[in-house]
Design a protein that fits this description.
The protein is α+β, with helices and mostly antiparallel strands and 726 residues long. It is built from 14 helices and 28 strands.
Length: 726
């Protein structure tokens, strides 16, 4: 029995071990199976993404009758493939150094001959003369997917498509001359005998003192037979979001075109050619989800059929990347401009990853890239064809656009001071204000001083209207106070007859010399509203004010004297004043139509709220009715709300409103003093005869006529009532 106990124990231990091992093996198998399933799922997602990419990139084969006639002579070529072996490297043209002769530095990759970055020499990421230079566009990324702008996609030869998206091109040494830098990239397409059938040559040139990159592409037939080719490549796409936190992502796409009705090609316009980036993505994914043809930026249903695309652009708040055909740099005639659509008849829009690849991704996290495709064409043996284009990557600056060839290409269409619509932000007024402001800056050398002088000029122009309106309002308020007892009697007497009450009230006003025309006291504010709206949009978008300080940068200079160089107060009129900085990066709360940035304490909006409060106290007459008291309570609430909404607005705008309101208080002080003098002398309430034919005279006659009509209607109604009774 004693022997059986250890034997049983050993047996149980063996059985337990076997069970444990089996369980471990089973667990391991399940883990391997789960891993395999995850890998398979990832492969399916990747395959679906690749399929979406491929489907979205298909270029419509546009064939001319001449091409169709020659198709019978075309023979397929076996084993077509791109030559490999070139190394992956990055090529740099130009320079981002401030003392260089270049306005632009361009980085290219030998992979698909794509462009990886445009860096602007004269523009910094942050305020200050030195530091990291601003890059307007780089590799377009969305999640794990990325696309090089302007990279090659494929070339179709005699019906066989050769994929070039991941092929490294051969590159020459960069040739630098006094007028610019040039690099040549080539890729060979071979047959199954590894003989060169076709060579694609891309010569990229960056001139000095230019924001334009010139790309000359040629397709050389090295075979002994005609080749039918069609070329496909990427264009630009998403530019870098410049962190315009206050109004959110302001990236847009613009198409400019020769209208179909203009047969002489004298105009390039962009009417109905402006599209919001988020709207493009939303519509694209919506159509893809529904299985419908996806909508792109061109052609557009809103634009007249037969119009020809001249160029298209991707924009952020201050900069743009424009894709166009090569245009002579000296031309100033629109008819000499080659339309991009004449070089690349097919312009596609691709949103990636697509809905099928990632249905749950937020649409704002997806990316947009455009594609270009040539039409099918025949290249005879030993001959070549071209598909040249140019890329403008630079500021949306009128000074630049007033030079050839941008005047001929009407690049001024890129400059808009709009906040959702162009007409409601008074474009002509915004541009006029900027011109006047620029002139003041030229004289005084400071944008802050220029804004304050602009305030004084506007106030001076509106002073006669403001003075008359405020005098009339104060006079009206005093008269209303004196008439309150009589109005209360009329209310009691005609409590059941509102029409009679209105008639007697107007009669009392007329007897006491109260002119209804004097009730337009808010007219000066309404006259200023277009200026505020236009100035708001202009200060937000004008690149002239980007990183420009106020008051000769006195606050930063004073702080530097005591060894504190990081005070950012009013160092950039295009951003909040940043009196005290809490975070270097924006920290935002998204509201209905703005984003509230609490990364800093901004003092100008707070001061603006205080000044608004005092202005309201000084200019608002005592409330004589419950309705007036309710309106005044609402106005007090608006006084607090208005600075809240402008808390993250450009400090140039808050400076203007603060200065304008302060000037209004001073103006109101002298007007009130004048009113007191008139009241003491007895001149305030003297009835002055209305000027015959004037506004007041016409208003009085109109009101008298209205009262007569009301009386006649009441008399008719009364008679009718008596007849009914009898």
């Amino acid at each position: 029995m004693r022997i059986l106990v250890p034997i049983i124990a050993i047996a149980l231990a063996i059985l337990t071990a076997i069970a444990f091992l089996n369980k471990g093996e089973e667990s391991s198998q399940k883990q391997k199976q789960a891993t395999a399933q995850a890998v398979e799922a990832e492969k399916k997602v990747a395959a679906q993404a690749e399929a979406d990419l491929k489907a979205a990139e298909q270029v419509k084969d546009i064939q001319t009758p001449a091409v169709q006639a020659e198709l019978s002579q075309i023979q397929s070529i076996a084993g077509l493939h791109a030559a490999t072996g070139a190394k992956l490297e990055t090529i740099t043209l130009g320079s981002a150094e401030e003392d260089s002769n270049y306005d632009l530095q361009v980085e290219l990759s030998t992979e698909a001959a794509g462009l990886t970055r445009f860096t602007l020499t004269d523009y910094a990421v942050e305020v200050g003369p030195s530091g990291e230079r601003y890059s307007v566009e780089g590799v377009i990324k969305a999640g794990k997917y990325s696309v090089y702008p302007y990279a090659s996609r494929f070339i179709s030869i005699n019906g066989t498509e050769v994929d070039l998206r991941k092929v490294n091109w051969q590159t020459s040494d960069v040739v630098t001359k006094d007028d610019g830098s040039t690099v040549t990239l080539t890729v060979d397409v071979l047959n199954e005998q590894k003989q060169v059938v076709l060579q694609v040559i891309r010569e990229v040139t960056l001139p000095v003192k230019s924001y334009e990159l010139q790309v000359r592409q040629s397709f050389v037939n090295h075979s002994n037979q005609p080749l039918q080719i069609q070329w496909g490549q990427y264009a630009g796409g998403d530019v870098i979001d410049d962190g315009a936190a206050y109004l959110g992502d302001r990236r847009q796409f613009l198409t400019a075109y020769f209208p179909a009705a203009d047969k002489t090609r004298t105009r390039i316009i962009s009417n109905d050619g402006l599209l919001n980036r988020t709207a493009v993505i939303d519509q694209f994914i919506k159509d893809q989800k529904a299985g419908l043809p996806t909508v792109g930026i061109w052609p557009s249903e809103d634009i007249e059929a037969g119009s020809q695309l001249a160029w298209f652009a991707s924009e952020n708040r201050y900069f743009a990347v424009v894709t166009s055909a090569l245009v002579p740099v000296t031309t100033d005639k629109t008819k000499d401009v080659t339309a991009i659509q004449s070089v690349f008849p097919t312009i596609g829009t691709l949103v990636f990853p697509g809905y099928n690849a990632n249905p749950t991704m937020e649409n704002t996290d997806r990316a947009v890239v455009f594609t270009l495709g040539t039409q099918s064409q025949i290249i005879q043996a030993g001959e070549s064809a071209n598909a040249d284009f140019a890329v403008y990557a630079g500021p949306r600056d009128q000074y630049v656009f007033d030079t050839p060839p941008y005047t001929a290409m009407n690049f001024s269409e890129l400059i808009r001071y709009e906040l959702g619509c162009t007409w409601c932000t008074f474009q002509w007024l915004a541009k006029g204000l900027l011109s006047f402001l620029t002139g003041l800056h030229y004289v005084f050398g400071d944008w802050g001083i220029a804004i304050i002088i602009l305030v004084l000029c506007v106030r001076l122009i509106l002073h006669p209207i403001t003075r008359k309106a405020q005098i009339n309002m104060m006079k009206m308020g005093k008269q209303m106070q004196s008439l309150q007892p009589e109005l209360e009697k009329l209310k009691k007497k005609y409590a059941d007859d509102p029409q009679a009450m209105q008639r007697e009230q107007m009669k009392l006003y007329r007897e006491k010399g109260m002119n209804p025309a004097n009730m337009f006291g808010c007219l000066p504010m309404f006259l200023q509203m277009p200026i505020w709206v236009a100035l708001y949009a202009m200060l937000y978008y004008a690149i002239e004010l980007r990183h420009q300080p106020a008051f000769y940068d006195i606050f930063h200079n004073l702080a530097s004297l005591v060894g504190y160089d990081n005070w950012a107060f009013l160092t950039d009129l295009s951003s909040p004043d940043r009196f005290i900085t809490f975070f270097n990066e924006p920290h935002v709360i998204t509201l209905i139509f703005i984003q509230f940035d609490y990364s800093s304490l901004n003092i100008l909006p707070l001061l603006m709220g205080v000044v608004f409060f005092f202005q309201q106290k000084l200019t608002t007459p005592p409330a004589t009715t419950d309705q007036a008291r309710t309106q005044q309570r609402m106005m007090k609430f608006m006084v607090l709300l208005f600075p809240f909404f402008l808390y993250s607005a450009p400090s140039g705008l808050t400076l203007y409103i603060l200065a304008s309101t302060t000037a209004g208080i001073v103006d109101s002080y002298f007007i009130r003093k004048h009113v007191r003098e008139l009241e003491e002398s007895g001149e305030l309430f003297k009835r002055k005869p209305a000027k015959p034919g004037g506004f007041a005279d016409r208003m009085s006659k109109m009101l008298e006529e209205k009262q007569k009509q009301i009386q006649q209607q009441q008399q008719k109604g009364g008679k009718g009532g008596k007849r009914k009774k009898s």
